[in-house]
Amino acid sequence: GQNIDQPTEMTATEGAIVQINCTYQTSGFNGLFWYQQHAGEAPTFLSYNVLDGLEEKGRFSSFLSRSKGYSYLLLKELQMKDSASYLCAVRDFDWWRYIPTFGRGTSLIVHP
Amino acid sequence: GAGVSQSPSNKVTEKGKDVELRCDPISGHTALYWYRQSLGQGLEFLIYFQGNSAPDKSGLPSDRFSAERTGGSVSTLTIQRTQQEDSAVYLCASSLGRGGVYEQYFGPGTRLTVT
Q1: Which residues in chain B have Cβ-Cβ distances shorter than 8 Å to A43?
Q2: How far is it, in rounded angstroms, from Cα B96 to Cα B102?
Q3: B99/A45 touch (CB, cutoff 8 Å), yes or no
Q4: Does the beta-carbon distance from B103 to A48 stay under 8 Å?
Q5: CA dihedral sign of residues A91, B36, B29, B78
């Protein structure tokens, strides 16, 4: 199983940059996902990392260090619509199971 | 194409009653997951179906919970003798495969309230 840790809440200003960290402990790492979840809505996929390094996708980037059990999601040029919960999910490889385990999420509040 | 759909969107039931929650995954997706999310909590894994293999039920919190997936498509999560602690949003997700970059597509959820 995993132990996934994320900050509970963060605040940032519109137009700024924010970094949301995620640390994890797992016995058989097989990928890390970031999802965005607006209040009352379903989570939607943002990014996937399985190798060390930075994956960039528009205003969003995600970084992974497997040796440190660490990832971050970087959001640039923040917009009000980025106010949401950001979920880090780690997938274990255990026999044939490929089940992502989710952290509690980081609630990001973007203010003008 | 159509995304993952779930029904009902909201369900209010009395303690002790049975409820059935339905999930229609994206066509062609072989993997199907059920999670539940309580207020302020992360997604708690419940059960996982992969193709025609036996489901992984390791996340079900008690024997009051069961799920089936018919014809490799539609899934039903059943909660018997509901308790107040069962109140949560139940989310279903499907994915094209079980490994690699296959991300999960989530349905809108069923909000279950047990009174």
Answers
A1: 43, 91, 104, 106
A2: 6
A3: no
A4: yes
A5: positive
Locate B40 and state its tokens: 């302020």
Please answer yes or no on whether A33 and B103 come within 8 Å at the CB atom: yes
Lowest-pLDDT choice from A18-22, A37-41, B15-19: A37-41
Q: B51-98, pLDDT tens digit by residue?
A: 888 899 999 999 999 999 988 799 999 999 999 999 999 999 999 876
- Please report, as a single letter, which amino acid is at residue A46: L
| CB-CB contact of A91 with A98 (8 Å) | yes
Residues shown for chain B:
115
Tell me the C-alpha distance between B94 and A54, whole Å.
26
Local structure of residue B80 (DSSP, 8 states): -
Binding-site residues on chain A for chain B (CB distance < 8 A): 4, 30-31, 33, 41-45, 48, 50, 87, 89, 93, 96-105
Q: pLDDT tens across A41-97, in order?
A: 999 999 999 999 999 999 999 999 999 999 999 999 999 999 999 999 998 876 556
Q: What gap in Å lies between CA A110 and CA B94, rounded to an integer? A: 30
Instruction: Determine whether B20 is exposed, middle or buried from the number of CB atoms within 10 Å of its CB (0-12, 13-18, 19+).
Output: middle
Which of B19, B36, B17 has its CA nearest to residue B76?
B19
CA-based max dimension of chain B:
42
Measured CA to CA, the distance from residue B12 to residue B114 in angstroms comes to: 6
CB-CB contact of A90 with A32 (8 Å): yes
